[in-house]
Design brief:
The chain has 201 residues and is an alpha+beta fold. 21% of the residues lie in helices and 33% in strands. The protein has three helices and twelve strands, in the order αβββββαβββββαββ. The strands form four sheets. A four-stranded antiparallel beta sheet has the order 7-8-12-11. It is elongated and about 65 Å long.
Length: 201
């Protein structure tokens, strides 16, 4: 009887070891073809614009304390959802029935491609809310350390000064250039607005 109990304990420990090892690994997302982390699997370690699988994921396990953005279409198009933890049933728990592309959520591992990945500014609030694509990111109200960025109030908000401030902002968050910038007046102060940062010069 004792030997049977020991054998059962060894089997249970062995079965849980892969999951425990997965959590200790570098940030990753493991997709499964069936619910409850069963069936065929595919491990993702970086932004993947096209998920190379002949099956649709039904569950996902996060590794390394990471969060991932999953999109229903390839190249991060269609409905996208940020998944912050493992899900044993993507359909019933999160309403996700299809994954065509997947990438680390903002602030996660770097995406592939030329130039550095955007890095949030330090301090509360980071760089502000944004919409990120493959090679560009749009900031409707850019921030530095949780505060809106003054746009040349001492120069009357001149276009040249606004462009310069926008360039400085884009470079500070890891982009190569700015493609669009504007200014917004709030309470008599001029702030940087509608900044589109690009990986390309």
């Amino acid at each position: 009887m004792l030997s049977r109990l020991l054998l059962a304990s060894v089997i249970l420990l062995g079965a849980s070891a892969p999951a425990m090892a997965q959590d200790r690994m570098a940030p990753n997302a493991q997709l499964f073809s069936a619910t409850n982390f069963m069936g065929r699997s595919l491990t993702i370690t970086r932004a993947t614009p096209v998920v190379q699988a002949t099956w649709q994921p039904r569950s996902i396990r996060m590794g390394g304390g990471s969060s991932w953005e999953v999109c229903e279409q390839r190249h991060f198009m269609g409905r996208c959802t940020v998944v912050t933890g493992s899900s044993s049933n993507l359909g019933s728990q999160l309403g996700i029935t299809r994954i065509g592309s997947i990438r680390p959520a903002h602030g996660g591992p770097a995406n592939p491609g030329p130039g550095p990945a955007p890095v949030p500014l330090p301090g509360p609030g980071g760089a502000g809310q944004s919409l990120r694509g493959m090679a560009a990111e749009f900031f409707p109200a850019p921030q530095a350390r949780g505060r809106r960025i003054d746009a040349c109030n001492n120069q009357g908000g001149s276009a040249a000064c606004i462009t310069r401030e926008a360039e400085n902002f884009c470079r500070s968050v890891g982009y190569a250039s700015v493609r669009n910038s504007a200014a917004e007046t709030v309470g008599g102060r001029i702030y940087l607005a509608d900044v589109l940062c690009s990986r390309w010069n």
